[in-house]
Amino acid sequence: MIRVKDIRVKIRYLFLGLVLFLSIFFYQSSSFIPTFQDKYYQTNDFGRVKLQRLSTSSSLLQTTTITSNTRYQINQDEILNRECQYIDAVYIWLDESDSNYLKKRKEEGFELDRNNTNDYRQLDQLKYSLRSLDTYAPWIQNIWIISDDQIPSWYHSNENNQKLQFISLEVLYSNRSHLPTFNRLSIESNLYNLPEQVSNCFLYFNENVVLKSPVNPTDFFDENFNQVLFESDNVFESTLYDNLIEKGTIDDFYKSLLVSGRLLDKAWVSDNDNKDNRIHLFNSVIERGVYTFNRKILIEMSNELDQQLQQISSQKVKLSTTDIHIPFIYNQYVKKLSSNSNNNNSNNSKYQYKVTNGFNFYGELSELSTLQDAKETESKVLCLNNNLNPLDEFYNQDVEQILKYYNSIFVDPSPWEK
């Protein structure tokens, strides 16, 4: 005869066993539910790459290294066979004051610039740039920040707003031997290899670029996702800058345009062609600020200039004598591939573009008039280059004034701040 007490004991153990089984089952199941972040980068036909997630429990970036090929390529067919559905934003952000970054640079044998190691920490321009996007461009679908496995000290992962994601350089670079790098241009030369999750149409920002007023998607792409190119009224004429280079009075920006024009000459124009056909003789100067990109055109550009871009990618530090300007070169490809290029109304191409000027304001923060000019400009985008010298006796006062200005126009924190 079975006693009631024995039955109760057996039921109790069965119940505890069931609870334990269900706990283990749901734990394992939830670990492998393919959320968007888990699908951030997974195995595909080209091999396994670095999987990167944002921790929802802390501000630390958790990464898992998986065996990878020496050179990883995205599935270009996927990009080329799809159309733009929405607009993303892409940043490149490097914390040059980070101790690990400085240690890595020293180990690679590159001299540290002591005058610039505090710039990014002092101004936190990325924080204000993200505030401007959250305030004036909430229609942006996703925000992607390319970094060297760094996150800002003020960053907070928001479970209710996961439109912001980080992309490791090890994911971006098609050739891992080019890492580590301390050269923003090297990173730009790999933008064609962005993960497939990034939209075909995106806006490229540096952390020193902020939106000053509300913007609409049509400020950047029309209803058919044809893009807007931002150029100034100044015409880029090669021989003029040749003379300025000889005199040593040309800055790195204009020098990069000259180098870019000559690169395109070699790629596009034969020696027998009339020199008036050379690309750098008739192009306007690109505005410094926000840039529009279509990944299909970017891939075509990267395929045609693969050797040149790989050379740039391998340069671990900035070389002002040979540096090119990636957005400027890209804009020339837009013009080359568009049906309305050079006022040609041919329908041979499905791409079209529009040029506008005055959309971006550019200023050097070391200039006393820059903040006042930024306040008065009607431009919708501000590009405020942080060229302050921490050794200058007025440095702390300048930083205080700049932060006061930023906080006056971007009062509310973004969803990704602590």
From TrEMBL:
InterPro entries the UniProt entry points to: RPS_phosphotransferase_WefF, Stealth_CR2
Molecular functions per Gene Ontology: transferase activity, transferring phosphorus-containing groups
Positions of the Stealth protein CR2 conserved region domain: 120-227
Pfam family for this entry, one: Stealth_CR2
Name of the protein described by the UniProt record: Stealth protein CR2 conserved region 2 domain-containing protein
